[in-house]
Amino acid sequence: MHSTTRRCCKTNSDLSFERNDPGCWGSDILFQHDNAPVHTARAVTDVLAGYKRELLEHPRYSPDLAPCDFHLFPKMKEHIRAQRFETEEDIIQATKVAIKNVDKCSYVTAIKDWL
User: Which range is the signal sequence, renumbered to this chain (predicted)?
Assistant: First the structure.
């Protein structure tokens, strides 16, 4: 199994979708992810099937269903464009700074557009 697929399975398992208590996930939850190969790998789809939740299809290149791709990521790229990073930690720190520099109204707009 590819390491990214393994991490995706572990993350999904850690979310405890099977719990139905009000403080966690309700029984009426719908689950949607993009069509990235790691999300559609057999190992991941098997894990998701075990949660017995409805899995919604996600059309490719759909700004209304992937607001981060069209609202957040382009704004983050403005802050990290043309930089070279020496280490993975440098990338993580630059990404954190970029996220903090994105105007909070952009997040609200993205979520409102998505809803």
Answer: none
Spatial separation of the C-alpha atoms in residues 29 and 73, rounded to whole Å: 26
Determine phi and psi for 24, rounding to 5 degrees.
-120, -110
**CB atoms < 10 A from the CB of 45, how many?**
13
- pLDDT at 61 exceeding the cut of 70: no
pTM of the entire structure? 0.43
Amino acid sitting at position 109: T
CB-based contact 27:20 (threshold 8 Å):
yes
Instruction: For the chain, give every domain's residue range.
Output: 3-56, 67-114
CA–CA distance, 61 with 21 (Å, rounded to integer): 34
DSSP 20-83: --TTS--TT-EEE----HHHHSHHHHHHHHHTT-EEE---TT-TTT-HIIIIIHHHHHHHHTT-
